[in-house]
Design a protein that fits this description.
CATH architecture of the largest domain: 3-Layer(aba) Sandwich
Keywords: Signal
Helix content: 25-40%
InterPro entries: AB_hydrolase_fold (IPR029058), CarbesteraseB (IPR002018), Carboxylesterase_B_CS (IPR019819), Type-B_Carboxylest/Lipase (IPR050309)
CATH topology of the largest domain: Rossmann fold
Mean pLDDT: 81
Distance between the termini: 50 Å
Shape: globular
CATH class of the largest domain: Alpha Beta
Low-confidence stretches: 1-7, 16-24, 186-194
Strand content: 5-15%
Number of strands: 13
Protein name: Carboxylesterase type B domain-containing protein
Strand order of the largest sheet: 3-4-8-10-9
Amino acid sequence: MTSTSPFFLSLILALLLTLVTAVDPVVDVSYSRYKGKDNGNRVTSWLGMRYAAPPIGDLRFMPPQDPTRSHQVKDARKFKLKCVGLQARASLIGKSQSEDCLFINVFAPTDAARMARLPVYVFIQGGGFNGNSKPHVDGTGLIQASGMKMIVVTLNYRVSVFGFLSYGDKVQPNIGLLDQRKALHTKTPISMWMPVIDGDMVRSGLWDAFNKGNFIRVPTIIGATTNEGIGFAPSVSSQSEADGFWQAEYPKMNSTHIASITTLYTDQTADCNDTRCFTKRLKDSYGDMRFMCSGLSFTSAMSFWMPDKTWSYWYNVEDAPGKSVPHCAELHAIWGTGRASSGTLSSFLDGGINANTTVVAQGYWTSFIKSYNPNTYKYANAAIWQAYYKSQRQRMVFEM
């Protein structure tokens, strides 16, 4: 069983109580002390703070345990390594990946008042539970956009076989989700190694749970980008190769299903003899099926149980014409380009053609974090973001 010691909550409380303007503040989180960094932009960060014991040795494949107490002041000025994922290689262990990876990162206003009770935005990096557990994003942009009135927290959690092995009596399934719960210290609803129905942490399939209303009902924003399939579906040179991909990815899909997809995603005015045409059609259809359609299905189910509490978006902002809008492209606008782990895009910098996208997006997101509604503190000239209803299916389109 996981421990119920309130490490995470005491950490946030400690930060709120001890925030000062001095460089490299030291915070006491009850089990250890960490030395952070004043970044010189009114934001202080504490990076790589341990929230659970190293999940190695006897703790491998086990639920997260409390960290060992220490009286030493530990350095919290650099990100730690991400958790080992599906594409792990021996050459990466100890350099960019590690089994010892259960750390959190905190960004907060340097001059926050004592007992400010600022809202806390916890960002859990996605990746299909197989990889990408690397929340190396900088919360500075969001904090500044909020008027210095919020805290940003990111966390690592175990993925792939290390997080979702479900074999043998001594192995508890879904420990990757338990890692998330450990960091949040609250009960949460809930490819190859993924969550399984264990009757405890995950009590039913996701579709069934959402359709029946068996989930924690909190305000939600769900969305997708235009070209979600880029990076997930392969390049193909013929329709037969595309058909083979569908059959391998979805064994229960028959030839009639595949033919219907091909028809729906074929430009009837174009000649598809160019191999790029086959690839585009496959990536577009796969992206819609895996991300866009599933997201809309969940949004519809949630909006049924939570009227006026669910919002949907479609992000269609290209970095440059013809560059497409791939998976997670919206992170450049939400976090501010250069603060997301995917690098800097010049078009989103001040004076760039997409600079206003960041202003508008951060206005919506910080408003949602502070008030559970993207419209309360939105950018003054931004449109009202209508809530999603299954009957109307209204989505906010981000487009330049």
